[in-house]
């Protein structure tokens, strides 16, 4: 099975661009814009790594980050805030995630994603459809 990533951001354009970029490298990408969609994907065990914005729908993504971490899933938090403010906002969670500032370098994101998985691959595929590459 190939690597699968959950990319969570409430900006439609960014989700589309990043989803296509990740998929172009042979990485399966579930790109969603809400906490509810992301929690559903995490609950189904569909992904190996999560990349999420710090704020989704004007709410902190802390519950989502905590869910991923309890599953032992490598997590990358992308934030428009300076890294120090993001670390402060995350509190103890900051030690458990990798933080990148927006705008971020796509090749750096790809390296973080491919280096992230430590455990096994996901076992099930539900009704959710990954992003399709236009390439």
Strand content: 15-25%
* Low-pLDDT runs: 118-130
Question: Cα-atom Rg, whole angstroms?
Answer: 13 Å
Q: Helix proportion of residues, in percent?
A: 25-40%
**Total DSSP E strands:** 7
For the record, give the distance between the C-alpha atoms at the N and C termini, rounded to a whole number.
21 Å
**Biggest sheet descriptor:** 5 strands, parallel
Q: Walk across the major sheet and give the strand order.
A: 2-1-3-6-7
Total helical elements:
5
Describe this structure in words.
With 135 residues, the chain is α/β, with parallel strands linked by helices. The protein is built from 5 helices and 7 strands; from the N terminus they run E-H-E-H-E-E-E-H-E-H-E-H. It has a 5-stranded parallel sheet, with helices on both faces. Strand 6 (75-79), helix 4 (83-90) and strand 7 (98-101) form a beta-alpha-beta unit. Mean pLDDT is 86; it is low at 118-130.
């Amino acid at each position: 099975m190939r690597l699968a990533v959950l990319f969570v951001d409430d900006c439609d354009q960014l989700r589309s661009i990043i989803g296509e970029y990740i998929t172009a490298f042979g990485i399966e990408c579930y790109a969603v814009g809400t906490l509810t969609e992301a929690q559903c994907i995490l609950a189904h065990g569909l992904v190996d790594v999560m990349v999420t914005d710090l704020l989704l729908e004007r709410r902190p993504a802390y519950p989502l980050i905590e869910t991923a971490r309890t599953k032992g899933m490598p997590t990358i938090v992308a934030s428009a805030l300076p890294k120090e403010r993001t670390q402060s906002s995350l509190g103890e969670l900051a030690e458990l995630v990798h933080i990148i500032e927006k705008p971020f370098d796509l090749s750096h994101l790809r390296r973080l994603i491919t280096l992230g998985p430590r455990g096994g691959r996901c076992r099930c595929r539900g009704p959710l459809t990954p992003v399709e590459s236009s390439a």
